[in-house]
Design goal:
Layout (H helix, E strand, L loop, with lengths): L1 H22 L14 E3 L5 E4 L4 E7 L5 E6 L2 E7 L5 E6 L7 E10 L5 E11 L5 E12 L6 E7 L2 E6 L9 E5 L6 E6 L6 E7 L2 E6 L4 E6 L5 E7 L7 E3 L4 E4 L4 E5 L6 E6 L10 E7 L2 E6 L4 E5 L6 E6 L1 H7 L6 E7 L4 E6 L4 E8 L4
Parallel strand pairs: 2-8, 9-25
Antiparallel strand pairs: 1-3, 3-6, 4-5, 4-7, 7-8, 9-28, 10-11, 11-12, 12-13, 14-15, 15-16, 16-17, 18-19, 19-20, 20-21, 22-23, 23-24, 24-25, 26-27, 27-28
Length: about 375
Amino acid sequence: MKKYLIVGLIVLVGGFILLKPLFDNDGPVIPPKKVSPALFSFEENLATIRNQPIEITIKINENIQKLEVVFNDSIIKSWNHPMDSLLNFIFNPSIFGVGTKSFDLLSTLEDGSTFIDNRLVRVLSEIIPEKLTLVELNSYPHQSTSFTQGLEFYKGNLYEGTGDPGNQGKTIVAKVDLSTGGHLEKMGLDAGYFGEGITILNDTLYQITWQNQKCYTYDVTNKLQLIGEYNYVGEGWGLCNDGSSLIMSDGSERIVFREPNGFRTQKTIEVYNNEGPIINLNELEYIDGKIYANVWMTNIIVVIDPNTGQVLQEIDATDFVIKNRGSGEALNGIAKNPINSKTYLTGKYWNKMYEVKFVEPVL
């Protein structure tokens, strides 16, 4: 009898051991992930300044066939069969402009297996932006019913794009008479489509939308007839062009360059000053090789290097806005007429448009 009792206890205990993982709150035991055979020596992500190269140390604890340093998806340094336990190299953070970039150490072993030590690098600008303000030179009528989202001169004519906060079908693009503020030509979108920035390239007007993820195109030679549309992912805020690429903001610190035909992404820059990213980039204008951007929720216009994303100048329009906004809303709408080299500003629901000049502040 004792014999059967002992056998039964053994079976019971053995079964409990086998079934325990099913009832264990911690779940099955997972073996630890193998540590990469090569690691950056710094513990956290990096923060640096664009024009300051820094020395990077790599620790190696296993035989490696190939070792590669990948910065912003480009290989910037590589070794075949590195023999030392410590490797050093000088990292130049300026090659891809400012912003937060990926920084990866890719190890390939003899059996072909790969490991990645992934970090981020935050590259600040070395430039302290020049501080400017503006002076008002002239004023012109502007329709106070226009929720201005985009402003553009093309072949001497002024064009405007509006949004539709009330969802009443008030999103339009229009050819505007500067002297009266009246609409010479106009085309609208249905309710539910919130228009944002506009720009014109090769007789085609492009109008992005806030959350509809569509860019609509119009023929400026044929009374702004709607001729097509493109899709994109994310929000649309501001739009301009440099003569070959469309340049688009999405409300973050990122600016995307896109192909005019197809709206495909060509490159992305991040906008940083010497302290960090500039978010809420809104309406855009391309002036003399620089991007001018309204910063939403502020009275600041930033001037951006389109190659690096660095903020070169900051224009404080606070006094101008306080004086001229009236019952309107935020400053929004920058346009330079290349024919007479005059620059114009307005805002959402403003009743005036202003010719302005950017100047150094009087101290």
